[in-house]
Amino acid sequence: MQIGLIGLGKMGGNMRERLRNAGHSVIGYDTNPGVSDVADLADLVQKLEAPRAVWVMVPAGAATQSAVDDLKELLSPGDIVVDGGNSRWTDDEKHADELGEHGIGFVDAGVSGGVWGLKNGYALMVGGEQEHVDRLEPVFDALKPEGPYGYVHAGKVGAGHFAKMVHNGIEYAMMQAYAEGWELLEKVDSVDNVREVFRSWQEGTVIRSWLLDLAVNALDEDQHLDKLRGCAADSGEGRWTVEAAIDNAVPLPAITASLFARFASRQEDSPQMKMIAALRNQFGGHAVESARR
């Protein structure tokens, strides 16, 4: 299948490579000419055969809106746009309406996999009309992990990003639990090998997970996380999860507390946030701040 891909950063660039490895034709555009296959969006659209499919993989908000604004003028009726960034689900409904006025389909895709997606595949949560999703099935199959799981048509437009938002909220709470446990183990005098305690949990325990494996990786690189400053940013999806919970009267005490803990990390050097920062760097390549001397 042929597809255009806008945004060739850490995830977009790896997605292009994974799709090409699966035999798909990918024409990529990025503002960085060093990685772009074409000069501009008009050139990208011109090189695609109708009916076209264009995957947008840029930051949520203004960048995504700009791409949608440009594509609705460049594409033709029957084409499809996929938003694979971390857009808010309410923006999806707006973008679907804007593109729909031009006869252009819209699919939202929540994508999880970070810097490991090229090797392991990406978990995909997709929202949109069945006919649009069906047309893109070969692309989803190529991006997802091997095996029967890792891809779901979650529902109508907005469902994919809503599902990814909740996924990220759960991720916040899981990382916070590991971080709190790590700090307590580091604090007591009786435990003198915290890293190996974490490693012992990787097999045979109910809390084993990929996040735990990444925590051990981080501790192997920096046993006491002395090189990190205890500060962790939030991508915005944790906030949206809490806001959605309030709107729907659903109690989310663990997720809400984990979000607030990140806010607290920006006020002081928090030991727990060293682990959160290390985990975010391990699975997503997110930037970390060096410890202040």
From TrEMBL:
Chain ranges of the 6-phosphogluconate dehydrogenase C-terminal domain: 160-287
Molecular function GO terms recorded: NADP binding; phosphogluconate dehydrogenase (decarboxylating) activity
Alphabetic keyword roster: Gluconate utilization, Oxidoreductase
Entries under PROSITE patterns matching the protein: 6PGD (PS00461)
Entries under SMART domains matching the protein: 6PGD (SM01350)
Active site positions, chain numbering: 164
Gene Ontology BP annotations: D-gluconate metabolic process; pentose-phosphate shunt
InterPro entries: 6-PGluconate_DH-like_C_sf, 6DGDH_YqeC, 6PGD_dom2, 6PGDH_C, 6PGDH_NADP-bd, 6PGdom_BS, HIBADH-related, NAD(P)-bd_dom_sf
Assigned protein family: Belongs to the HIBADH-related family. Belongs to the 6-phosphogluconate dehydrogenase family.
Protein name as it appears in the record: 6-phosphogluconate dehydrogenase
Organism of this sequence: Streptomyces spiralis
